[in-house]
UniProtKB/TrEMBL annotation:
The keyword Phosphoprotein applies. Residues 18-74 form the FYVE-type domain. One of its GO terms (cellular component) is cytoplasm. PANTHER family: FACIOGENITAL DYSPLASIA PROTEIN, FYVE, RHOGEF AND PH DOMAIN-CONTAINING PROTEIN 4. It comes from Platysteira castanea. It is found in: Cytoplasm, Cytoskeleton. Keywords: Cytoplasm, Cytoskeleton, Guanine-nucleotide releasing factor, Metal-binding, Phosphoprotein, Repeat, Zinc, Zinc-finger. Residues 102-199 form the PH domain. This is FGD4 protein. The keyword Repeat applies. Residues 19-69 form the B box-type domain. GO terms for biological process: cytoskeleton organization; filopodium assembly.
Length: 208
């Protein structure tokens, strides 16, 4: 659970591990080996890039010493609000942790588009939008890489010889999305949800 604004700086946060994110949790810039060093905000524990960690505030839990904090926490701690933040977030900017915690189903799946190589993606179907599949680079990312509105897709669950063993495809006219689960049981869980979603029916929660 997130620290509430009132608790920022008063309690030590849970640090999000570097390997749980592929992008800055504030400005959503992707991290890469060369240009984006990862920093932790000492108030909320989020992983941010150098630009977003260029603030300092006195933190109560650390004996009121000056600590590196992110822009958002800085504004909260020194008590000014950022009206920019109030602008409506785009569809892709639903945080993964937020939707994963309230989802019909979520797990890592291998994903392939057209002739690109397979890549691992954190896939989520949120309860409030049970007909949309969100794909993230990692479970704590704050912006989705892509969304697929499932309604009207055709499901093909028989892998071709070149596919990974537990794979299935979603096709609609020219767009084809291939997914593969780590095992047959997980594949069947996803198919159960997707078979309903493509017909516009709200699936049952599979996360239990």
């Amino acid at each position: 659970p997130r620290l509430q604004n009132a608790e920022l700086g008063k309690r030590a946060p849970r640090w999000i591990r570097d390997n749980e994110v592929t992008m800055c949790m504030k400005c959503k810039e992707p991290f890469n080996a060369l240009t984006r060093r990862r920093h932790h905000c000492r108030a909320c524990g989020h992983v941010v890039c150098w630009k977003c960690s260029d603030y300092k505030a006195h933190l109560e839990y650390d004996g009121n010493k000056l600590n590196k904090v992110c822009k958002d926490c800085y504004h909260v701690i020194i008590g000014c609000t950022d009206s920019e933040e109030k602008k409506r977030k785009g569809i892709l900017e639903i945080e993964s942790a937020e939707v994963s915690g309230n989802s019909v189903i979520c797990s890592f799946l291998q994903y392939m588009e057209k002739s690109k190589p397979w890549q691992k993606a954190w896939c989520v179907i949120p309860k409030q939008e049970a007909l949309v599949l969100y794909m993230y680079g990692a479970p704590q990312d704050v912006k989705a890489l892509a969304t697929i509105p499932l309604l009207g897709y055709t499901v093909d669950d028989t892998p071709k010889s070149a596919d990974l063993p537990h794979s299935f495809k979603l096709t609609q006219s020219k767009s084809v999305h291939s997914f593969a689960a780590d095992n047959e049981e997980l594949k069947q869980k996803w198919l159960k949800v997707i078979h309903l979603a493509v017909k516009g029916e709200t699936p049952e929660c599979q996360n239990e």
